[in-house]
Amino acid sequence: MENENKHKGNFLKTFFKERKQVGALAPSSRFLVKKMCDKIDFSTAKNIVELGPGTGVFTEELLKRASKDCRIFVIELNEEFYIFLKKKFNDPRIVLLKESADNLDDILERNGVAEVDAVLSSLPLTVIPDQIRKRIIIKSYEALKTGGVYVQYQYSLNAKKLIEKKFGKLKMGFVAINIPPAFVYLGTK
């Protein structure tokens, strides 16, 4: 419980300081984490990308579910979250990078990865400038293998049309037990 309160304190402090990079007042609930991670086929996944991990609540679940030879590319732009994650995780499967998600193609190329099985995104798309937001969606789509999944949550339906432009019809979910309640978008390449 003390550790959970520490996460919430770090998250809240960073939310008020970095409003353009942090989209929520609290870390995601375990219900949202489960709903999002359930969309990934961990039995075959060799490369997973996580965009905007914040304090690492999704990262923890990805590590629990991923095989020992799966690489998880954790991409965090915010300096404070990056430092926090660097201290929190010591797992050889994690490739932690302090970069912008719109550099995804370069990141994967530098790491010798041609395609990924899944992209899980916690990015607050509504506060990201339009051109960058579009590049993130396009590069996420291009990084996926055929049949790979893009899983994104948002607190509104504002990003639905943007994601559908690249992925076509999305499967939608909703998690009421989260602060605030969240929509889950699932796109398949």
Summarize the model shown:
It contains seven helices and seven strands, in the order H-H-E-H-E-H-E-H-E-H-E-H-E-E.
Name the features.
Rossmann fold, seven-stranded mixed β-sheet, globular
Give a structural overview.
- It is a single chain.
- The chain has 189 residues and is α/β, with parallel strands linked by helices.
- The protein has a single domain, classed as Rossmann fold (3-Layer(aba) Sandwich).
- Helices cover 38% and strands 23% of the residues.
- It is built from 7 helices and 7 strands.
- Strands 3-2-1-4-5-7-6 form a 7-stranded mixed beta sheet, with helices on both faces.
- Helix 2 crosses helix 3.
- The N terminus is likely disordered.
Sheet with most strands: strand arrangement: 3-2-1-4-5-7-6
Query: DSSP strand (E) fraction?
Result: 15-25%
Largest sheet: 7 strands, mixed
CATH superfamily: Vaccinia Virus protein VP39
Q: Write down the Rg.
A: 15 Å
Spans of at least 5 consecutive residues with low confidence: 1-25
Helix and strand content put the structural class at: alpha/beta
Secondary-structure element order, as H and E?
HHEHEHEHEHEHEE
What is the total domain count? 1
Question: Do you know the CATH topology?
Answer: Rossmann fold
Discrete helix count: 7
The second-level CATH architecture is 3-Layer(aba) Sandwich
In whole angstroms, how far apart are the ends? 39 Å
